[in-house]
Fold this sequence. Notes:
The termini are far apart. With 1056 residues, the chain is of the alpha+beta class. β6 (177-184) and β7 form a beta hairpin. The radius of gyration is 35 Å and the shape is globular. 39% of the residues lie in helices and 17% in strands. The strands form ten sheets. A six-stranded parallel sheet has the order 17-16-18-19-15-20, sandwiched between helices. A six-stranded antiparallel sheet has the order 23-28-24-25-26-27. The chain has a five-stranded antiparallel sheet with strand order 1-3-7-6-2, sandwiched between helices.
Amino acid sequence: MKKFLFSVQSALDFFAIADYGISGVCGKEFLFTAAKIKATHGKGADFYHQHLASNDYYSEHDRVDGHWRGTLASAFGLSGSVVSQEAFSLFQQKVNPVSGQKLTPRNNPNSVRFYDFQCSAQKSVSVMSLFDSRLVEAHRKAVEIGMRELERFAAVRIRRGDNFATKNFAYTGKFIYAQYHHDTSRLLDPQLHTHNVIVNVTQESDGSFKALDATEMYRAIRYAGKSYQNALAQECIRLGYEIEMKRSDKGEITGFEIRGVPEDVLRRCSRRREQIDREIEKFVATKGRQPTPDEVKLMTLLTRGRKMLEKTTDQVTAFKMSLFTEEERSNFRSMASEAEQQSFLMMPHPKRETPEQQIRKVAEQLFERSSVLRWDAILAEVQNQNLGEVELEALQIAIRNVPGLVDLGSPAGNPYFTTAKNIERENYCIDIVNKTKGICRDFTSDYVPFSEAEDTFDHTAQIEVIRQIVQSKDPFTVFRGVAGAGKTSTLQELCKCLKKGGVKNIHVVAPTNSATDVLRSENFESAQTVAMFLQNRDKLPPKGSYLIIDESGLNSLRQGTEMMKLAMENEYRVLFVGDERQHSSVEAGDFFRLLEEHSRITKTCLSQIHRQQVQEYRRGIELISMGSARDGFEHLDAHGYIHEDKAAYLDRAAEDFVRLTDDGKRPLDCIAVSPTNRECDQLTEKIRQKMKAAGRIVNDESNPVESFRSWGWTKPQLGNIENYQVGMKIFFNTKVKGVAGAGEMAEVLQVAGGKLVLSNGRTVKPSLIRNSIDVGNAVPLPVGKGDIVRFTVNLRTPDFKINNGSLAIATGNRNEYLLLDSNRRELTTIRLPEEFRGVKYGWVMTSHASQGMTSKNVVVAAEKMSNQAFYVSCSRGKFNLALHVPEKEYFKKKLMAIRTERLSVHDLLASGEITKIPVQKSAEQIMQECRPDPHQLVRKCWQDKLRDVLRKITKRTRAALSKMLLLNGSYQNRQAIARQEEEDLQMQDFPAVVPEKAGVQTEKIDPKTDAELRELEEFECQFYQKYGTEVSNENRKQERTERQRRSKSGHGMGFD
């Protein structure tokens, strides 16, 4: 095959940026994609002739005229004109076609020349366009809208001053592109698509030409694609067609199709897509991993046959029509005719929702799991969920008027948005930490940590952490402990110190029931989940308790804020325990990291690892825990812990699992981890095959179990009746009285009147039960004797209790399992209800599910991982680690590229991406609206200190006075003693509110109280300074001198 002048080697310089949409069952349909084109060999003539001007795929005699588009086209006098080979070639050579001078100041010979953004119509639209030419024009109109929106994100890199060699950019909103409309795929499938070949040039405000910074265009490609898709849907409706939404295998909208075009026709006309899918399957079979976008693009290029130069346009049209039966052609002609008639009769139908309502509904869904989002991301999803039902211009105006949605103002062309509630929560958490520092008393304890320990470890670091925590005078403290550093034993010793120091109530909170079980097994009997702690307000620990929040990194911002409010209301002191480098909450807001990075919270750290018993294994985990994932990977690789197995990586991982469990005899001695549910399922199947071959699993075919698989919908999605379709499975996470029990599943039989009719005979409104249900599908699960299973729901019966995440071993009897405790020890045999569906295999778990677990050995299998997943997964073992990957270099590259940190508003402020946080409410207003008011609570803490000191002084004073009166023994003195005793009782209820200018009237009786007076005066001074009450140091000095004088002279033997 003759090489193109831009060369097949240049194919490596192509890469797909994104692909969106599903065409029926035909697989992925590239609706809006992008590719870089270097075309640095020659003058781009072959690319122009063979790829653009020939309708892409056939007769060289039937040319396609391209046209120059874009705001910048007028600057070159080309707006709307036909693309000539000469002008195209000059742009390829980085030459200004008007002046003949260099196009841009910098002229790297290997730089990108063009960006090809391709819009592809839905397959049903392409099919019907053969029978209704109006759809061709509809596609072209939609392309214009998509490219208009993409042009907003044309940008230039800023290289001046402090921004030299940085990633900073400025939007220009200008580019020029050559537009070519094609209607056929490489295999002559009907496929309307348009190439928009953007020249790598833009214009700054001063009129100078610069190279494009395409980063923001890539970022916004989904928005541009959905703008195109929405416009095309609107045009189809206007032309008289009915459309239907297409959904992914998880029930989420991905696009639309024209109603009436059968699925088998869509499949039949997608041979090019199927050809690429087959190449992807071959790649996976060889490499053992999914291809990258640029590798997919390379496959696309290499599967392009040479031009079918012998075919004319008429021949190609005839071939496309031959793909349909005569009956299908007749039906499509009828559809086109009826649509045309309908378009004349169609009346504008009222919109179901206003733009503000559409945005608010989608924003609620998106912001459940993100704290900040770009403008384009919000509008892309609003259009996606309302294809054909929204006016883009109206959305662009309405988004800044939606109550509760806050425009952060930067970047100017595509600003970040957040919610007013999120700003209030972030400000509250940071403010309350900063404003309450030093208000508590430190603890005095005579207990020596680890004095009772029988091990030989060096506990110096743990003892120092305990000392720092105990001596802290702040109500909130962070304890960061790396994986395997001994956080649990440190907390156990801390609790002993606190109890010796007079703390009566210590309460431990953890994110999951499984975690609380682990804590209870470690003698933290009061442990409960975060959810239960926040829900059961009537069962909160007593006032003044000490709270330990374990695995705080898994708490969302909402949960963290609520816990801090409860702590202030009940005068709790709180220790947040976690590790920001491990997994964070699924819900929005990295609460633990927010406190660590943006508040002045007192931090203690434990970085010495004890879990790994092998030095080189431990050293690798230490490197990862310090944030050096690449160094940790290379260290573990150098010492034989990492294995490259290509397509056999799952088989090799399963073999290692069997080896590390003594040929499967002790399966609980090893944890198997994979980062995705897909890989978990694949590795589970490999392990089960080998365990069955070894005789460890038997009779699995005789005991099939129906298992629920979640689609991971958000709460707003679960509550929206429009998301439900017949056949979906509803799973009950908790009991819903009169509907279903925990762990039960029902099928949706009908969606009508805002309610769901279920297969169990019940009718429900999803908005009322969204917190108790999940949505997904059911899969058959053959469970044999010896199979390890994992429960996915909490269930309590009179006979037993299981938690979400609990493990068990199948006994071979139907629904009967041997339940395991948190340490994988056998507990008891249980029999589950017949209708229970909350069970799945427990051989392999995701890294998120494995967090907090420990085992002798760990086997990890993954084609790629984030830093967090890599750290958590590899640190589970004590003695052995076996990490199996398809390709080491690919894994290492992705390890550094996959980002898991979710931005907060304060992250944006700290990085300079926004200049200020818009004032919704002042910090003072937020604090005052909280119940209770934190200022009052802080003031009360200081008042309590004063009260304690006054009680001590009063007690000593009365003791001394009583002693003197008893020595005298008179009747009057006995009456005085009685009065004193009565007053002592009244002092037990010393008033909670200290007067604004409270003066202490107690006189000094015993020289021992001198230190207490000093303490009292120090508290008074700090209290008055903090809350605006002026205390004269001179007056205090005079008062003190007078008290000392009266004490020496014998005066003041009572109260004045």
